[in-house]
């Protein structure tokens, strides 16, 4: 067995660096859970917000989009800051910022202030979440790391679905007459508890040997070209349908492509000058990372779109309440979590073969979204099949990081998390727009489920073909 040494020192090949592996994992995953929860928890509260704040449709869109935009734009920055200043330190700073912004959101007196605080909340999440995967990579090894990544993926899936159910429950119970404000205020006691527990259980950051100036470590030219590239991509995709796809949206998408090309040029120049690019070529050249990234894009895109469109259908033609529609996803996410937590029980030679097989199962399930859209037990069983198939995501993530050295964990985690976040936005903006268009033209969400199911099936089956390359790896994994 070999050991890998980076600027932080040598990481031994055992379950965790100290005896607090279990409590430490619980603390960081709870923080991750809150960040994922807040992507979706506001959705069912929007009608109440509109009435209470007299918000316009565009204002409601910005309340939702503000969090996602700053979260996606700053994820890689947060990952790099963690590598520079310490993952434990940045996790606590991000958690404190997120908790304070949640309190401010809950007390916001107007739509404008709520939008501002949602941007700040997303920025806190962007500092917090990249540290989670980096600390898993740094502090866990071997089977313990694979189990931790399984819990990580289950938390992501659970946070998405619990967000929908919890939002309905909190708004429906109207605790202390707070109405929609409870969907934000619920984060405050949880965040405070994690801030108290974190210093006691999280391993301390070991001093990094910095050989370059801070501005070089952060790759400021890269940040200044990447941020507008992501921002100009996300804003029109999120707001385009609501505003009727105006001309400025298409101009923003074109500008995003120009900034993306500039970012690639800046990164090549930084690498040629022996600098430290924001996304290093070494990370991108890691075996299996590229095909794994394709799967990491396709699975969250289809998953996020499925949750979005199915929620609209459940509350549309099937006339479920927000709470009922959220609870309807429990069997689906349970299947997702069970696969994510138990795939290691399969023989090792089956692990990567399970990825294209799982995608194929999910793709076949999507084909029946339309025919079974009338609801009932068959529809619930179908969501279980889809969740079961996409439950192979932990295998994809483990494979993507298989050959990434611990010293590159911050860059890799930022890249993967940004791809996952943007994938959901792109999926909802494209297939979600198809669903809304079909529902409007056909006068029925059930009618829209047919075209949506075919689009999702095509996407995931393409992912299954791409994932076949993951089965041919013969390179020993880094630890």
TrEMBL record:
Principal location: membrane
GO CC, any one term: plasma membrane
CDD domains: MFS_MMR_MDR_like (cd17321)
Cellular location(s): Cell membrane
TM region positions: 24-46, 58-78, 90-109, 115-136, 148-172, 178-197, 218-239, 245-266, 286-306, 326-343, 355-375, 381-401, 413-439, 451-470
Sections of the chain in a coiled coil: none
Limits of the Major facilitator superfamily (MFS) profile domain: 24-475
UniProt membrane topology term: Multi-pass membrane protein
Keywords: Membrane, Transmembrane, Transmembrane helix
GO molecular function, one term: transmembrane transporter activity
Superkingdom classification of source: Bacteria
Pfam families linked: MFS_1
Record-linked InterPro entries: MFS (IPR011701), MFS_dom (IPR020846), MFS_trans_sf (IPR036259)
PANTHER family per the UniProt record, alphabetical: ACTINORHODIN TRANSPORTER-RELATED, MAJOR FACILITATOR SUPERFAMILY MULTIDRUG TRANSPORTER MFSC
Entry protein name: MFS family permease
């Amino acid at each position: 067995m070999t050991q890998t040494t980076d600027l932080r020192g040598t990481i031994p090949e055992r379950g965790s660096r100290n005896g607090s592996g279990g409590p430490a994992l619980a603390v960081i995953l709870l923080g991750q859970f809150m960040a994922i929860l807040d992507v979706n928890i506001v959705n069912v509260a929007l009608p109440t917000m509109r009435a209470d704040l007299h918000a316009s449709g565009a204002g409601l869109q910005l309340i939702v989009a503000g969090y996602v935009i700053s979260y996606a734009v700053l994820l890689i920055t947060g990952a790099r800051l963690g590598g520079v200043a310490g993952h434990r330190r940045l996790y606590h700073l991000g958690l404190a910022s997120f908790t304070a912004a949640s309190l401010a959101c809950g007390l916001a007196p107007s739509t404008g202030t709520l939008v501002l605080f949602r941007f700040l909340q997303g920025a806190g999440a962007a500092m917090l979440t990249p540290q989670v995967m980096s600390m898993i990579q740094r502090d866990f090894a071997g089977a313990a790391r694979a189990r931790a990544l399984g819990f990580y993926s289950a938390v992501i899936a659970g946070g998405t679905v619990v967000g929908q159910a919890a939002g309905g429950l909190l708004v429906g119970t109207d605790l202390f007459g707070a109405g929609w404000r409870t969907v934000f205020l619920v984060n405050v006691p949880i965040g405070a508890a994690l801030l108290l527990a974190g210093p006691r259980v999280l391993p301390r950051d070991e001093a990094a040997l910095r050989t370059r100036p801070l501005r070089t470590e952060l790759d400021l030219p890269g940040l200044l070209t990447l941020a507008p590239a992501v921002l100009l991509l996300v804003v029109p995709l999120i707001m385009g349908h609501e505003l009727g796809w105006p001309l400025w949206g298409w101009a923003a998408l074109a500008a995003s492509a120009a900034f993306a090309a500039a970012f690639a040029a800046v990164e090549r120049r930084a690498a040629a000058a022996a600098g430290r690019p924001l996304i290093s070529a070494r990370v991108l050249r890691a075996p299996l990372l590229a095909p794994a990234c394709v799967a990491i894009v396709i699975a969250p895109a289809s998953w996020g779109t499925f949750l979005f469109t199915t929620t609209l259908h459940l509350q549309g033609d099937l006339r479920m309440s927000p709470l009922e529609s959220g609870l309807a996803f429990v069997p689906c996410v349970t299947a997702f979590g069970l696969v994510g937590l138990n795939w290691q029980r399969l023989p090792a030679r089956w692990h990567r073969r399970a990825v294209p097989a799982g995608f194929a199962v999910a793709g076949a399930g999507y084909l029946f979204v339309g025919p079974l859209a009338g609801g009932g037990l068959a529809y619930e069983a179908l969501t279980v099949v889809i969740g079961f198939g996409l439950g192979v995501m932990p295998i994809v993530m483990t494979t993507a990081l298989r050959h990434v050295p611990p010293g590159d964990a911050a860059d890799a985690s930022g890249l993967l998390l940004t791809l996952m976040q943007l994938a959901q936005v792109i999926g909802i903006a494209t297939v979600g727009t198809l669903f809304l268009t079909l529902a409007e033209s056909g006068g029925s969400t059930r009618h829209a489920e047919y075209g949506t199911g075919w689009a999702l099936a095509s996407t995931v089956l393409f992912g299954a073909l791409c994932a076949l390359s993951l089965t041919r790896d013969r390179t020993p994994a880094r630890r």
